[in-house]
Each structure stands twice: as structure tokens, then as C-alpha cells.
Amino acid sequence: MGRENQTVLTEFILVGFSNFPDLKIPLFLVFSLIYLVTLMANIIIITTIRLNCSLHIPMYFFLSILSFSEICYSLVIIPNMLANLLREKKTISFIGCVTQMFLFLGLAGTNCMLLAVMGYDRYVSICKPLRYQILMNQRLCTKLVACSISLAFIFSISETIIIFTLPFCGPNKVKHFFCDLAPLLELACGRNYIGEIVIFIICVLVVISSFLFILLSYILIANTVLKIPTTAGKRKAFSTCASHLIVVIVHFGCAGIIYLGPKSSYTLDQTTFISVSYTMVTPLLNPLVYSLRNKDVQIALKKSLGKSSCTQRK
Asked: What class is the 2-313 domain?
């Protein structure tokens, strides 16, 4: 009976920014600009890292993968959101909703795990500098990225299956601008309490475990840095972590508020704009922070205006 009811519903209506009819055009223009800047900034970061031999180290390898993931992450959400700001019928097909949720959760999980991997890279670089090249070899770096992506999408497909095996037979208005976990759970005609517990555990594993791993890495880093005798040495060591720390704080702060915070404490409008910060600001923040705060990237960007530094060295 549940499956028959589920097939009756063929599309969802994304409520999104319907509560702000007078702001549709301004929001469209602002969000379009942010999206274009996000795409260009991440593409520039990837290209710069690719073309400059000085950036062919694990830290920037992980950064280029993170930038590519952020491009895909934005692509899954933002184009459809922009289109819905302009059209009257703000619908998404059932299959489209399934696909969007699967990709969104997979890419969001990938980003969390990549940030954890980058934290480990900083730990090895500062705490075990003499063994850095041996420990963080290309083979290990590739395996860490592959494991991060694989685990994230395994968790994603598990969550998506749990959600979409529920019967959807009633209202089809999703109180969000994309297909996310909580708004779709509200629409389901039945409950799967075990499934909801599994989803919560997965969210905790991905978000909390990644954050705690990063926190542990930085506790060990701080312990090592404090033993450096000179102030200049301490400053230099901490400066290599500053960009990563800023991205981590914003990324996990937003993720924690959305997925681990009490849902009843936020109105629909508040949840919508918090989600905007998570889906639009964090993908833009990553390349901007690394471009503005990292001297190696700044130098490489200037070199990239001419020929590739790899080509020059050859």
C-alpha cells in the first residue's frame, strides 16, 4: 500500500523563497553573481594548482579536489534555485528530487571528509616535518581522496534510500529551495523510526567525527607549535593552518546548525537563509580564503598570468 501511494506523487513543489515575492529579482541577481564568482574562483584555484609546480604538494592537491567538489556541489543546488526564483511553477520531479538529494548529501559529506584529510595533512607537515614526504606520498593522498568520496556517497545513498522508501501520498510542498532531509521527512505519510535514527547517526558520523578529527589534529599541532622556541617560528607554523581553520569553522558551523541543531528553534525563513549560507557562501569562501591569505597561491596566481611555471622549468 505504501509503495502504491508513493508512486501517486510524481513531483514536489519547492516553496523556497515564496515568502519574499518582492525580493525575487534582487535575490536572483545577488545569487547569480555569487554563483558566477564561486565557479570562476574555484576554477582559477584548480587551474593555478595544476599549472604551477610549486603547488604540486599534498596540501594543494587536496585543495584542488575540494574546489572541484565545491563546483559540483553548487551545480546540484543553485541553477535550479535560480530558475525557481523566476518561474511561477517551482516544481521538481520525483526522480529529480531523489537525484538532487543523493548528489547533495554525497558532495556535502565529501567536503567534510576532505577538510578532515586536510587537517591530517597539516598535522603531518608540522608535527612530523622530516617524514612528511614519505608519509604523505601521492599514493596515500589518492587513497585518502578516494576513501573520502566513496564513504560519503555510501552514506548518501543509504540516507536517500531511507527517505524515498517512505510513502509520499499527501502534500507535496517542500519547505525549502532544494530537496533536503528534514523537509522531506515532514511530507512522508509514514514514519521509519529506525531509518531516522540511522540518518541521525550518519549525520553525526560525517559531521561530528570529521570535526573531532580536525580538532584532534589541531590540538597536536598546537602542542608542537608551542614548543618552537622563536615567535617567528610559531607564527610561520600557525600561518600555514590559518586558511584551513577559517574554512573549517564556517563549514562545520553552518552544517552543525542545519543538521544537528534543534529544528523547532528556527522558523522557515531563518532555516532558508541559514541554508543559503551553507550552500552558497561556503563554496565561495574556500577559494577566496586561500587566495587572500596564502602567499604561495598568490604568487602562483601571478605566475599563471603568463606561461605555466612547469613549462618554464622544463
From this structure: mainly alpha
